[in-house]
Write a structure and sequence with these properties.
alpha/beta, three-stranded antiparallel sheet
């Protein structure tokens, strides 16, 4: 199985990046009236930016990339397309990362057309420049080689998905159907090159059991279903 280039991000790093992002916004001489977080990845950075920039107006739009029952929709879309009166306002649109840029493009277009603010600028902590269709107005790191940022707010979700990928691919390729906890943890560390810590592995295994993807055989053995 191909190893995935991952970076384990700490809460402290997030706070540091958002402090830097706020300094960049301030240094540009532009002051937003309102912050819009792209749900869900933009929530924490948006809230921190509100703190560092002393902005009290914070709202959110959620961008979905999947339709019902995992149908792929042709285009990312806004989940709850509500209306706000923002004429004359300056909006800072915030996400954690600008990867392909699709979420940001859809959110920006929606806000421009529906909420009609005077101006929208975009801020993200990371910008993956080789793949992104847009460049944020403010960013901290330009990332030149694609990498998965394992942010603390998706730690369990990512751990569940990563473990599911390991056990299903290993079953397909090697026919391996039974795992003990340490096997799972070692494979995780090997494939993803990060260690999310004992609590997350235990919670992820419990979630996979709940979802019927793993079955507990005994105290420390699990069967892939
Ligand atoms: N969401 C979209 N792209 C991502 C990436 N490269 N790392 C973390 N979260 C993401």
């Amino acid at each position: 199985m191909a190893k995935v280039n991952c970076k384990l991000v700490s809460w402290d790093e997030v706070v540091g990046w958002c402090r830097e992002l706020a300094l960049k916004v301030k240094a540009s001489g532009w002051r937003p009236d309102l912050v819009v977080a792209i749900a869900r990845g933009g929530y924490v950075p948006a809230r921190l930016l509100c703190d560092f920039l002393d902005i009290h107006d914070l709202v959110s739009v959620q961008v979905l990339h999947w339709g019902r029952a995992a149908e792929i929709t042709a285009k990312a879309h806004i989940k709850h397309p509500y209306t706000l009166e923002l004429s004359g306002k300056r909006v800072l649109l915030v996400d954690d990362i600008c990867d392909t840029g699709d979420s940001i493009i859809v959110a920006k277009e929606f806000i421009m057309n529906r909420w009609k603010p005077a101006e929208i600028r975009v801020a993200t902590m990371q910008w993956i420049s080789p793949v992104a269709k847009i460049k944020p107005d403010y960013y901290v790191d330009e990332v030149k080689e694609w990498i998965w940022y394992q942010y603390p707010w998706t730690r369990l979700e990512d751990t569940v998905n990563f473990i599911e990928k390991i056990i299903t691919e290993t079953k397909e390729k090697e026919g391996k159907c039974e795992w003990c906890k340490d096997d799972i943890i070692n494979a995780f560390k090997e494939y993803y090159g990060i260690d999310v810590g004992e609590h997350y592995y235990v919670l992820a295994i419990e979630k996979l059991i709940e979802e019927g993807k793993l079955e507990r055989v005994n105290e420390d053995r699990y069967r892939v279903r």
